[in-house]
Amino acid sequence: MVQGSRARIRLGWPDVGERELAEVAEVLESGMLTMGPKVAEFEAEIARLCEVEHALVVTSGTAALHLAVQALGLQPGDEVLVPAYTFPATANVVALTGLKPVLVDVDPETMNVDPAKIELGPRTKLLLAVHLFGRPLPLHALPDVPLLEDAAGALGARYRGRACGGLGLAGCLSFHPRKIVTTGEGGAVTTNDAGIADAVREARNHGWRSLVPPDMPAPGLNYRLSDVLCAVGIPQARRLDELLAERTRVAAGYTERLRDLPLLLPRADDGDVHGWQAYVVQVDDRDRVLAELRAQGIEAQIGTYALHLLGAYRDQGAFPGAARVFERALALPFHTRLSDGDLDRVAQALDKLVSNH
Ligand SMILES: Cc1ncc(COP(=O)(O)O)c(C=O)c1O
User: Fold this and answer.
1) DSSP E strands, 184-337
2) What angle do helix axes 227-238 and 18-30 make, rounded to 10 degrees?
3) pLDDT tens column, 187-212
4) What local confidence, expressed as pLDDT, does residue 1 receive?
5) Protein residue with least CA distance to atom 7, ligand 1
6) Centroid of ligand 1 to alpha carbon of 129 (angstroms)
7) Does residue 352 have an active-site annotation?
8) Which domains does the chain possess?
9) In the predicted model, what is the mean pLDDT of residues 304-309?
10) Which of the listed residues 148, 211, 240, 343 has the most CB atoms within 10 Å of its CB?
């Protein structure tokens, strides 16, 4: 039941408006809806933000992961380490590319892969390094293994001063609506490696190396992002600092209000910058709390998934860290339109639900 006439507090709300409308209008008026100038313009902004040479935009974060994994030239059966607690796309692209995803348990406090749980085998070729919900992974604690960053939620995040998305062989971003920069659906591969960039550029466009004369050395896909969607992303990319400052304000507002409650609150390691894709707390009896919040018009959500509990990955054994976080993680409403009054309302609702008074 929604209480009285109180407005619903939405889980997410993209920060788009007049600037994006104007950019989209320009594309529509130009008649160039795909493969036009907005693609290169958006890519230049993304490369600048991730402090890399190349950014290639594609139709989703999943497409970015798919093409990046494929571009690394691994052999069928090679093993790729994947956190046991992440959005399933992280592991799905590995399996669909003929490689073997090997799940690694997560640290139940950080929700990121637990470096102490990583075991390198003779066929381990890569770690798919997820900065979950925007929290940078502690790279210094990882063993010596090549990294592909799943930075789907980490645009704007920084590990010890360096931009996430520019820390490994390549980075993969998502522009889904709950991300800091959104195009509705979209994604990007970021890299300093010209070979990876060329492979992704070709594979997102059917495999064409050139059209005249026709040259297609390997089969590819159509994962091109339309200029209409690039136009939505450009103004947001230009004001990433402002968007991150707003999200940091909301996160700090929650932390201030919730710190005395029996909840585990999210944060980044000292010296890192959290990208605040989401504000995900951990709480006992999460399903009850989630249902009660929703009944009060507060749109909350689970965090993400424990992959070993899904049919596709059930054969990989037990991952107690992932199982615990899957049961306890609770994503609170998180977007730049949240007012102090909204934060008060969420905090008061949580206080009543989790405190013993
Ligand atoms: C960690 C992670 N990886 C990959 C993806 C997939 O991105 P997309 O939804 O843009 O395909 C997501 C999406 O939420 C994600 O959170």
Assistant:
1) 187-191, 280-282, 301-302, 305-306, 329-331
2) 150
3) 999 999 999 999 999 999 999 999 99
4) 43
5) 61
6) 13
7) no
8) 18-104+111-238 (3.40.640.10), 240-354 (3.90.1150.10)
9) 98
10) 148
